Amino acid sequence: MKRSFPALIAAAAIALSGCATFTDADVAARVGDEEITVDQVSSIAREQLGDDEAVRADMQTVVGILNNWVLDRVLRADLAAGGAPLDDVEGELSDETLGESINASFGTWQQSPAAPVSAERVRELYELGPVDGNLICTAHILVDDEATADEVLGRLDDGDDFGDLAAEYSTDTSGAAGGALPCTTTTDFSTTYIVEYVDAALDADIGDPVGPVASQFGYHVILVRPYDDLGDDELLTVLSLPEVRFGFATEGLEIYVDPRYGDFDPSTGITPLG
């Protein structure tokens, strides 16, 4: 079964990779030292669509081919860097061999442990903030009325501990854990929680409580938790997500896509320009 880039690595918005500035007229895309030419892309597209006129009319298919090729090359580079290189599929590059190659690389990559990421790199990414770093860990204190939320904020200003106040005041089950909610990617966070909570958290500075934030559940005091307050394992689940792993895998790779096909981003693949 052929696999498209967005279906495999769909959610993250972590812009981690550098892009090369090559201008080779016959190179459609390059990952590191490997490249796919315009002729090769056109040949595969003709296999799928039948003739040159159909290829010219169907840029989505062409971009899909390039997405699969770039994805395959990045995954293979990541596997090799982790000490588990894959043999290339034998035969000339074609619709069939590209499909075999991406199925093999993605299947193996899924079964392989995530490459370790240094705490310094994770801190750097987290402290970019949730919008730029695509990582967020929040805590909240949920109360029934605005006056109580203001009381909580006043005690926080006086130096009381957020977790202690969550245990004392919060009507949410998270209060027993100091108000902490699971760490997640910002992309998943934005689709998991109610819009009022999401908007307030994404607008907050790390470590500075915000509120009262009214919602259908009551009034929230929200904290985007500082990195130093996180437990050692709180980000592990997030770092093992395929879209996050893929973002890290692109780091250090020169990835070039001819602008006629679009612009490459690790979270979305190749997006046509304009």
3D architecture notes:
By secondary structure, this protein is α+β, with helices and mostly antiparallel strands. 45% of the residues lie in helices and 15% in strands. The strands form four sheets. A three-stranded antiparallel β-sheet has the order 2-1-8. A three-stranded antiparallel β-sheet has the order 4-7-6, with helices on both faces. Strand 9 (263-265) and strand 10 form a beta hairpin. The model is unreliable at 1-23 (pLDDT under 50).
Question: What's the short version?
Answer:
The protein has 274 residues and is an alpha+beta fold. The chain has 13 helices and ten strands.
Largest sheet geometry: 3 strands, antiparallel
Order of helices and strands: HEEHHHHHHEEHHEHHEEHHEEE
Instruction: Outline the low-pLDDT stretches.
Output: 1-23
Based on CA atoms alone, the radius of gyration comes out at 23 Å
N→C terminal distance: 31 Å
SSE class: alpha+beta
Rounded mean pLDDT score: 87
DSSP E strands, number: 10
Q: Which structural traits does this protein have?
A:
274 residues, alpha+beta, three-stranded antiparallel β-sheet, 13 helices, 10 strands, 45% helix, elongated
Topology:
Elements lengths: L4 H4 L18 E5 L2 E4 H12 L2 H6 L1 H23 L13 H17 L7 H8 L3 H4 L1 E2 L1 E6 L2 H12 L4 H8 L14 E2 H7 L2 H9 L6 E6 L2 E7 L11 H4 L2 H9 L4 E3 L5 E3 L3 E3 L3
Antiparallel strand pairs: 1-2, 1-8, 3-5, 4-7, 6-7, 9-10
